[in-house]
Design brief:
With 409 residues, this protein is of the alpha/beta class. It contains eleven helices and 19 strands. The strands form four sheets. A seven-stranded mixed β-sheet has the order 13-12-11-14-15-19-16, with helices on both faces. The protein has a five-stranded parallel β-sheet with strand order 3-2-4-1-5, sandwiched between helices. The protein has a five-stranded mixed β-sheet with strand order 6-7-10-8-9, with helices on one face.
Length: 409
Amino acid sequence: MSAMALPLDQPWLSVVGIGDDGLASLSPAARAVVEAGEVLVGGRRQLALVAHEGAERLAWRRPLEATFDDLEARRGRRVVVLASGDPMCFGVGETLARRFALEEMRVLPAPSAFSLVCARLGWSRGEVECLSVHGRSPDALRRHIAPGARLIALSHDGGTPDLIATLLCEQGYGPSGLWAFEHLGGGAERRVEGTAEAWPEASCAALNTIAIACVPGVGATAWPCVPGLPDEAFESDGMLTRRDVRAASLARLAPLAGQRLWDVGAGSGAVAIEWLRALRRGQAIAIERDPERCARIERNAQRLGTPEIVVAQGSAPAALDGLPPPDAIFIGGGLSEPGLLERCWQALPQGGRLVANAVTLEGEQALLAWRAKVGGELVRLMIARAEPVGRFDGWHPAMPVTQLAAVRP
């Protein structure tokens, strides 16, 4: 096809969702865009679905963003990016929208794998948690596993269904229903189904999507996403913000979608992990100087479904240099370290939250002095637990915790 001048009011970059049955899956408008394209961009599988001899073809390079410069070089031509299903649903459209201005793009989606699976199983799309383990750790599924939950996940490869079956059994959810859908919407569509504990040991097609109907087995544990997990949920050497104090600390940290936490002196990582569990989209950096504790944080994060946690080994405040900026900071120890409170306060944006806990007199003095400078709410948390006293029960008090919660004006 010869090059044509692009109308000034027409975006040069089109992102077209295409199904497994190729051009037959496209609407007339989407098909016209593909057929008029001068440059077709996509994975090798998507490009193979379209017979268009007149167009230049570009396959994605790794990393994906390396191809974006190639797109820039073709600005002003009719560039069509082919994507699986809905490009804005865990797809390349999301990444392109961060690189190119919205007025330069148009997106024509096809039904997503999530919509097709819901249609096959009769599930309500609004009642399903939609996830992706493509290029991501499957451990992220763990925080969504709960009695009665319905999950749909985009696979990484043909071995992902086996991995998820094993993961469910490890969580005590062996009776859960499991479906692997191959080549959804195409002529080769097929499903494999069973339970996690009786899952057939066979590799599926690389292009597959997994549905899970969570059913707990005997003795399964259901961890809520509301902060305040039991202390025994975390592997720890004793450096752990205890359950009741942790819940109070997270309430004042106020996790908000898309925000980032610094957990300074993270110990076992419990505060950072619970921050992530409470959010759909959140980030957390656990700063810890002890290498064994850093490894322990990573194990806790994997087991509790937050493998995206970032562990930064080093001593604060020096270890904070160069980290992405936080929206909230928790300091669980080390308050007597010179310059720590000042460095953390300076890192916060307007409206950023600082929560710091102290159990020593020296730490408490640091909080009193800091409150005199910046204000904030100072509380003392005193927890007592009923424990046996001879034949009876009595209250056994834990060490009181002094907590400062301040918001940067």
